[in-house]
Amino acid sequence: MDIKPITRPSKALVEAVREVGAATASATLAHMGLRNCFIQGPTPFTPGKCIAGPAVTLQMMPKREDMFEEGEYADVEKQLHRHVLYQVSEGDVVVVDARGDMSSGIFGDMMSTYFKGLKGAGMVIDGCVRDWGKIQQLDIPMWLRGVTPNYHAQTNIMPYAVNVTVACGNVTVVPGDIIVADDDGAVCVPVALAEEMVDKAHKDHGWEEFSREKLLAGESLKRYYPLHKDAYPEYEAWLKAKSK
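^ that's the sequence the OP posted. Answer follows.
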């Protein structure tokens, strides 16, 4: 079984992407020419989490019994949803193209427990998990379409490939791309553009904390969002005062 390991970006770059957040990353990538990097469908099932990490991918395909007819525990090493977890290192994000299927629980309690032990950052699944009551206790950040009592290949789909380019939530995800996910959803940041995205995000959105303070004080929306050029001296003075 030929599964290629991913190339991981530096932890500093991953953390910088996490600090930017999903909404700003999405908007900044759009300004850079990538119209939509938002993984549509999976929603935050563990509210309040904010993660970023390199993508380890699993591709599911429509079930074909001549290619995959084993039950839940027969010939387990043929079940590639196990092998994607074998590729996980601390801080990775498992991204599953589950075709939006709502009747297959890609991972359950035991597989998720293993992922927790590996210290993975989280999971983005265009589909479901099972054993949700027990998985919730693990406190793994997860972005999902839903939950189901069925196991991964019980009905319509089967695990097909690991660490290949996948279409997750109508977004192309390349293994090693940086996934940033929070309460706004999950966004795929192409690793080759990540550093530029972070720099541009700080340049284009660095004034937002200052503007937020002004708006909360009842100041002018026209002047402070987006920050009008005439207000930049105020912003620069605010930055200088903060740095003291």
